[in-house]
Structures are given as C-alpha cells and as structure tokens.
Amino acid sequence: MIFDSHAHLTDPQFKKDRAQVIENALTHGVSQILTVCSFFTERETEDFATLLEHHDFIFGSAGIHPHDAKQWDKLWPRLEKTLQMEKIVALGEIGLDYHYNNSPRETQKEVFRQQLKLANTRELPVVIHSREAMEETLDILHSEGINSGVIHCFSGSEDEMKVCLNLGLHISVAGPVTFTKASTLQRIAQTVPLDKLLVETDCPYLAPQPVRGKRNEPAFVRYVVEKIGQLRGMAPEQVAEITTQNARRLFGITGS
Question: By the 8 A CB rule, do 64 and 79 touch?
Fold first, then answer.
C-alpha cells in the first residue's frame, strides 16, 4: 500500500498505454495516486477529468507551473474551471523555477503569489515546485501565510528542509534519492520527521536507479520506498504505511 503523491498521468508519454500503467501500479502495491494537471490543454483536461471520474484511487491537483507563468491570462480561467472538478485535493504544482527561466522571474513570483492566495481562499494544500529558487520560494510561502502543503521532489539543503518544516510543510522524496551520488538528498530522507515525509515518482520523469533511463511510472515508487527503508533501517512496508497515511492526512482523503 503506497501513495504516489505526485504523478503526471496525463502526460503524452502515457497516451498509448495509460490503462496498463495504472494496472501496473495496482499490481505493485500502489493504492492511491495524486495526478497533477499543469498544461490545461483541452486534451489534458479531458484526460484528467476521465482519470478522476473512473478511478476511485486517483485524486487530482491543478496549478499553473512556473514555466507557464507568462501565460497567466490565458491559463487562469482554465485553472479555475479545473479546480471545480470533484476529487481535487490540492493546488499545484506551483512555484519558482530559476533553472530554465521559461517565464520571467518577476512574472513567476507574481503568479505564484496569486495561486497561493487562491489556495488559501479554497483551503487547499499546495504542491510546490522549486528549482534553484528555494530561498525566494520559502520567503513567499511565509509571507502568504502558507502552512499546508508539500515541497515536491525536494532538492534543497538540510537547512532549507528545516525552514520548510517550520512552515508546516511536508517533504516529498522522489527517484533521485536512489542515485549513487545523491548524498544530500539521502541525508534528508534519513532525517526528515516521519510524519512529514511523502514519496512520489514525478512520472514520467526521474525514474529511480533500478530503471533509470526508462520512462517513470507509479509502479516504480516502490524503489523510492525501498531506498528510504534502507537509509532509515526500516522495513519498506513501514515506510509505505507511514507515507501513505501522511499523504491522506495532508490531502484530506479518508477511507482505505
């Protein structure tokens, strides 16, 4: 029983075999999935709605990615419409990305703030993307009074982790924790309080070491769980149970 807390099941890479990918997940112990809607094309939103409607174990999050912040005027109405769907349990992924700078930094910050205000209004936890921008990301989260959410695919330092925790945020660990040279992330996985830890794939990206170079999918989240278990001296089943309950609590999901 594992909760993949961040997947992109509407990505075009899953177009031909999405049903099989979902079946693979169930076969390998994935009990629930949070799938993220980011692009808001007509095709993506249709696929997103279908996933939420036809699979009771798949839940949704929607937000304008920092890459697309410059398209705010176009995407904002689509985001509002998507957030009205049933089984939306979070707003995101949203945040800052200073690695690619696909949108101007000031635009990213303004769009980030607008979506944080929306999350507060709707009382939704936020799913945060931060790449090479952690200090400003955390400053904005603090100034907007955010205390419910997750830094997805965490890549910051131990000190930055502590700031996240002080804000009340969860830390989500993805496939890179399995990489040989990921010493900082492995220390994070060892030391983050268990009640603030989530696991994810970020599929189809960031496949873990045993399948590195392949398209990632929710079934592979088990490798993340196994690695965290090794690092913490815990059985994988314990890690799976704890992180699943954490995700359910964060996203307000009840039931088995």
Answer: yes
- How many CB atoms neighbour CB 46 within 10 A? 11
Taking residue 255's Cβ as centre, other Cβ atoms within 10 Å add up to 7
In whole angstroms, what is the distance from residue 66 CA to residue 63 CA? 9
Can you list the pairs that 223-227 forms with residues at least 24 positions away whose Cβ atoms lie under 8 Å?
223/175, 223/178, 224/173, 224/174, 224/175, 224/177, 224/178, 224/199, 224/200, 225/2, 225/199, 227/177, 227/178, 227/186, 227/189
Q: How many CB atoms lie within 10 A of CB 41?
A: 13
**pLDDT above 90: residue 24:** yes
Strand ranges (DSSP E) for 55-151? 58-62, 88-97, 126-131, 149-151
What's the pTM?
0.97
Q: Could you tell me if 117 and 143 are in contact, meaning their C-beta atoms sit under 8 angstroms apart?
A: no
Domain ranges of the chain: 2-251
30-37 and 2-7 strand pairing:
parallel
Other beta carbons less than 10 A from residue 115's beta carbon: 25
Quote the CA–CA distance of 65 and 82 in Å, as a whole number: 14
- Give the residue carrying structure tokens 């094309």: 41
Extract the tokens encoding 73.
């005027």
CATH architecture of 2-251: Alpha-Beta Barrel (3.20)
List pLDDT tens digits, range 56-109: 999 999 999 999 999 999 999 999 999 999 999 999 999 999 999 999 999 999
Cα–Cα distances (Å) from 188 to 9, 164, 172, 174, in that order, read 27, 12, 10, 12
